[in-house]
Amino acid sequence: MQAVQLAALVDAPAGVGAALDAVNGFDSALVNGFARVSEPQSAALAALAAAVAGSPLAEAVSAAVSKVSTGAIGADELSALAAARAALLGAVHDALVGQADTAMGRNRSEWTATPEAAAPSPLAAGSRAWLGELAIAGWRGVDHDLVAAADQTVESLLAEPALRRLAMLLDGFTAELGASAPIATMDRVPARRWADLWTRALLLSWRGAESPAIEPVSGRLLPLGVDLHEHGTAVQAQVHGVLEVAGAPARRVRVSVAAAKVDTIVGPAVWQLLGAHRQLLTALAGQRALELTHMPLTATGDLLWDDDRAKAGEAADPFVTATVQLPQAQAPAVAPLDRDPVHIAEPVVLEGYRFRDGVLEMGDQRIRVELDALPSAGPLTPAGVTGSSTMIGLLRWEAGVWSVRPLAVQRKVKGALTAFHNGDWALGPTDPKVAKAQAKSGDAVAVLRERAGRLLRK
Q1: How far apart are CA 337 and CA 345, in angstroms?
Q2: What span, in angstroms and rounded, lies between the C-alpha atoms of 58 and 393?
Q3: Predicted TM-score (pTM) of this structure
Q4: How does pLDDT run across 32-80, given as a tens digit for each residue?
Q5: To 10 degrees, the CA torsion angle through 12, 328, 109, 317?
């Protein structure tokens, strides 16, 4: 990426600020709920309606705002407000992705509408009722009784395969709210996050079972890097790469694999939880290509990973892939419900930079690097990143500015240019000090599995 391209990212596209202001106003209104609509809440709802006045949602949202302001709140009115919020964030997403594509000279596939899904299940109506109660109470009004009221609904949804997506979202959402209740005592409410989850759940409740378009592909996957997401109860490795298929243009794709965990499993040990994906981990640890045979690929560029359909092949330097193949690779389309700035993660390669006060500089342009997001399961450290000369990262947009999340860096070690990747320890730590410390502390995964086995045998 050249300095002129960074310069193209300095100013947000026109209208982004106004759209986010309307979203933030609605999110603030949700904090205290709609049981009694205050003057600031009325103003926030009016601003939301004004922001979509020129869209097909205009009439429904205007009617919803009028009813909510008079206390006549129903699932239809709240769904219209959720749709307006999602539409504004979708417009912001599209503007930002367009800005990034222009800055980097990249091409992107257009989203093709899929056939209409089946009618929503009657079971989803229960989730809409509970989400409506949340909106009336507001986040400050959520207590353990309100959270527990969703238990039966979530249980019913989990039993229906076609509603698993909505069920998993609500299951996690209720667990998060329950862990925070009573929310009235919290110093700070994560208004944006909870409004995101509320909106997505409400919109999903209106969707029937979908059959996403899936294309089996055979070819060569060249990994660029892995973004590791850790939570107290789960870990996910999301691999970004370039897919080469004979007779077709190269495409950018993602691979996401996940596993349940407990909060005592941290650091390099989390890779053991993903051990079922041996070929993928081998490729990450050794910077190797993957030969794919009839691997399912969705229209959003997600490979539905099946380790039996992959084989780790020859060496493939991610920095060469990022320099040579990435600029020409076709970016995937984005599904409507995923059009949100929080989902933006564009692979980039940066070189010829320096760090000053923890900020990456290229010429007279600057961009923040997410040093606080470096996973403890890999060799990248803040000092190693700030001492690097080349970086593969994910271009992201957060809190009103662009930032880069490092996936791999090159820096000099004892005079030799050396590469460090987030996935280097996928088969175990290669740093002798880390390996020794892990051996000394014992194999937490093996211990927990052995204990679980004993419990099951009893």
Answers
A1: 16
A2: 39
A3: 0.90
A4: 999 989 999 999 999 999 999 999 999 999 999 999 988 778 999 999 9
A5: -90
